[in-house]
Every structure is written in C-alpha cells, then in structure tokens.
Amino acid sequence: MIDFRYHIVSLISVFLALAVGIALGAGPLKETIGDTLTGQVAQLRTEKDALRGELDTANGSLKDAQAFLSAASPQLVGGTLPGRRVAVVLLGKNDQSIVDAITSQLKAAGASVSAQVQVTDTWTSSAKPTFRQTLAAQLTPYLDPAPAQNATVDTQLAEALAQSLTGANPSSPNTLSESAGTVLQTLVKAELITTTADVTAPADAIVVVAGPIATNGAPAATPDPTTVTSAEMEIARSAQARSEGAVIVGGSVKQGLVTDILADNTVSSRLTTVSDGHEVVGQISVPLALNARIGGVNGHYGTGTDLTPIPTTVKLEPVGRTPTPAGSTGSTASSSGATG
C-alpha cells in the first residue's frame, strides 16, 4: 500500500509539473519564449545570408583572378620553352579539358607537343603480369641504355616508354630512331598505351599528368593503388632520366603519384612536381616548372604546405639538333644550356 501510494504521488508530481509548464508557456511566458525563439531564428538567418555573401564574393574574386591569369598567361610563359618538343604522358583518368589547358600553356611557352600518350589499365592489370613480363623481355634489346639485369618489369616498361618518346635518329635528329619507333609501335599494339596521333618526332622533355586512380572495373583485374603508383613512379623516374627534364602534374585528388613523390625525400629531390594542375595557376606553372627543370632546378610547386607558389624561370639556350654522321661517336641527345 505504501509503495502504491508512493507511485501515485510521483505520477501526480509529474503531471503537475507538466501542467505548470503548459500554463506558463501559454500565459505569462508565452510572449517571452516566442520573442526569444524568433530573435534567434532571425539572427541565424542573418548570419547565413552574411556567410553566403562572403562566399559569393570569394568565388567572384577567384574567378576574376583566374580570368586575369588566363589573360596574362602568354606574357607569363611566353618564350620559356623555346623550340622544345614535349611529350605528354597521361596516367589514370584525366579531364580532357585540363589536359587541353596544359598543352595550350606548353604551346604558349614556345614548345610543340610531339606526342600525347595515354597509359592504359593493361599497364598494371593484375590479370596480365605474364604478358607484361614477356613483352618487357622482347623490348629490352631495343633499349639503349638497357635496364639493369635485375630491373623489375615496371622499370623495363617505363624505360621502353620514355625511350620510345625521346629516341632520336642520330643522322636525322628531327625523326624518331628506328628502335624508338619499333618500341612505340609494340607498346601500342600490345594496348599498353594509346596515342592521339602518329608520333614522328622525338621529345626533348616530358610532362606526366597523373590523374586519379580508377577504382571501378572487374575486381580480379584491378590492382591495388600501391601497385599502380609503384608503376607510375617508374614512369616518372624514366621520364626524367631519358629527357632534358620532366614535370609530374597532379590534380584535385590528394593521393596518388605526386603525393607519393612528395612523401619520399630521395625521390622528391630528383623529380619536379606541380600539385594544382586542375587550376589555372597550376596549368601556367607547368611550362615554368619545366623550364626550371631543364635549367637544372628541381622544385615542387603549388599552394600546399612546403610548396613554392610559382617557379622561377631561367633563360634556356636554343636546342641543338646537329646530325651525327654514321659511324661517329658522341651523344645523340639534344643539347641545351641555361643561363641565370
């Protein structure tokens, strides 16, 4: 009986409290509570409108800055790559408009695009390791210098790609060497790469545009990102080793090749990167960075931490393309020089 009465008293107390709250809310405190809530809502609405205005202003300023940079780019990059032939190598999925913008800046700098090559998924497909190993063995005799005997398949194929784009005919430096042409055709027929047009002239320099790693496709044939970036790293190394200079360009995705290069002190000391290839400022930086790299200056450019905003250019000497008579010795590579 005592427990029952205790519960009754407790329930009465709860309902009494509810009744008092309702009475106050509908009576003396009604206006106060309503006014308070109305004021808070109005304040939040005002703050939201202010933030929207600030965002619109910032976006407008950004568009104005990009428009200014686009208009000024011919003056910024003009003459920085005089007479250079540049091969553009595309890795992963890239927005064609970004690729077109980068090639436009290269041309504005005085360069010509000797090749545009897309590396396909077959390059790293987990379903075709034996195929790639056999192909690499077939290509090695055409490579000079040849990869080390203990070189991985990734290294062998990367060397093949770089040399196929830069190998010049000693007696006719404006044409590909016979070996380079053979290697390039073999890579195309094997569907490891595609080209937008016939490649007839050797490149002096290489720009590697590293897009996001594709995650779709058949699970059995899709390698993990580590495998992809490892293969791409070898392409970047060979691009630098077999040319006057190379630049590795990243986009909006903060992972992949450029991120891996920046994370490795040894690799980053040898390879030049541009981290904002999807922005106008990054696209302008590509020819400027390539100019600096050809001139012997390695750097990492972009808007992130520890990155240099804009490359400092040097004056490059014209490219030397003197034919080498058959049987003579000496370097067959294009000669260049830079003055500060």
TrEMBL record:
Signal sequence bounds: none
A Pfam family this chain is assigned to: MctB
Biased composition (Low complexity): 322-340
Region (Disordered), start-end ranges: 316-340
Cellular component, GO annotation: membrane
A GO BP entry: copper ion homeostasis
Name of the protein in question: Copper transporter MctB
Organism of origin: mine drainage metagenome
Name of encoding gene: mctB
